Nitroreductase
Amino acid sequence: MTDEYSTHTTLGFLHSRRSIRGYLPRDVPDALLHPLLQAARAAPSGANLQPGRFIHVAGTRRERLSAALLDDVRGGAPQQEDYGYFPTPMPMHLRKRQVAAAQALYGALGVDRGDTDGRARQFENNYRFFDAPVALVVTIDAHFGAGGYMDLGMSLHGLQLAASAMGLGSCAIGALASYPGTVRRVLELPDTQHVVCGIALGWPDPAAPINRTTTYRAPLHEYFRRIS
């Protein structure tokens, strides 16, 4: 990142934002969380439909949700996402990015490639929301098409940028969408609410090695061209 992006500017937050998976045991008050969500809702939205809902899961309900999801993972329950995420089949150039991201994550933790148990323990932290002070479950009405997911994605990015601007960290948790039936059952949601992801949010722990994970971003020439 160049010096021009290192200050507290929009470009600076875009370039410096990273997924935070280690948090301090410090609460995030509603007086701070609510403005972040309102900022997220200011994202662009086709026809101003503003798709998606954010559910703050706390207390015993959060404990029940994490326990039920961990039971699914450890018991080998089939994954039945409400929507498709990864391309099928996965092209090799994307597979390489996926592998590189995993290597960066587990490398920051000192977990060897062959340490299956260590990797499994770390992956389970997804379902504990990485012990972040705030656990959000993000849903969308089942009747929305791809455009609704695009709008919701912009809102999610807005939330994460707003969190960065306030000194908070966040991590989108796609793994939560692997067991939508369990999420709906524990949270008593209707089948018409599709589970998109989870969000962990809180104050980053500067001493957590996992927060030093850095991932590669494709150079401009790979995804941009000009046609005259």
Q: What stands out?
A: The helical segments are 10-16, 30-40, 59-75, 92-109, 116-124, 146-165, 180-187, 220-223. The chain has a mean pLDDT of 93. The two ends are 30 Å apart (CA to CA). The first helix runs from residue 10 to 16.
